[in-house]
Structure formats: structure tokens, C-alpha cells
Amino acid sequence: MDTTPSSLFVRLREPANQEAWTRFVRLYTPLLYTWANRAGVQRSEADDLVQDVFAVLVQKMPAFEYDRTKSFRGWLRTVALHKWREIKRRRALAAGALAEEPALPDPAEEFWDQEYREHVLRRALDIMRVDFPEKTWQACWQTVMEGKSAAAIAADQGTTVGAVHAAKFRVLTRLRQELAGMLE
Question: Which domains does the chain have, with CATH numbers?
Fold first, then answer.
């Protein structure tokens, strides 16, 4: 029996948990690149930024205690902005100029929350898909994302309505476990 905690945050407390870190990196890398792009970061600098953010996370996650009253998303955004400012300061110093705080637009009002949620859900679903038999995955996907009735899916798959509901329940339960605390 697998005794690994299902919450990704809990699993990331173990730096040697390669599977958890791989999942986390696959989940968040595209989002960090999107944030960097929205802030006007060049691709070569975005590579450095993403690497620097993950370096901080590797150091901080073993001691990370999820607090429902605080936002992981906000903390991640703060880490990314601090790392971007460091990159800008290093570039300015290398060019012989005094480092100034970069004037970054703060797209939080229109972007951060919704984009974050959509991205994390989309990536988690993409990553999790391989963990389920195709029939189970399709039963959930078709009911939740395509709005098909359980009866229609059961008829297509040659199974029962109860089996379709059970498949949906298994996938959504796993998704909730995987993303515990990440969407709040």
C-alpha cells in the first residue's frame, strides 16, 4: 500500500522526493514563464528567473507549512518578483549603472488569480491523466468538461451509470488531493 501523503505540498517537504518535485516543476514551470512573459522578461532572462525561483523553492519547501489564511500563489509570485528584481539589478550593475527597482506592471488585479487557478488545474489534469485508465479518464472528462450525461457515456463505454459516476469521483478526488491548498 502506498503511504505517501497525497498532498503535493506535503510530499515536497522531502527534497529527495523526485516524483513530487518533477510533478511540481511540470505544474509550475509554464506558469512562471507566463508570468515572466507578462512582465516583459526576455526568454534568456526568463530561463534564469525560473531556475532561480525553483532554487528558492527547493530551499524553502522542506520547512513550508501550508497556512489556509495565506496564499501560496501570492508567496510564489513574491518569490518570482524578487528574483526578477535581482536579475535586473545584476544586469544594471554589470552595465555600470546604479541598480534601480524595475518598474514592473502589477497585473494582479486582472491576471494573477484567475490565470493561476486555470493554469494549475489544466497542468494538474494533464499530468494526472497518465495515472488513470483511459476509460476512467474519459468518463470523468466527458461528464465534467464536455457536459455529457452519465447515461450517454455509460452507453458509449459499455458500462453502467454507476461506473461512470465512480470514475468521475476517483479522478476528482485525486485532483483535490493533489492540489490541496494550491488553489486557495
Answer: 8-131 (no CATH), 133-184 (1.10.10)
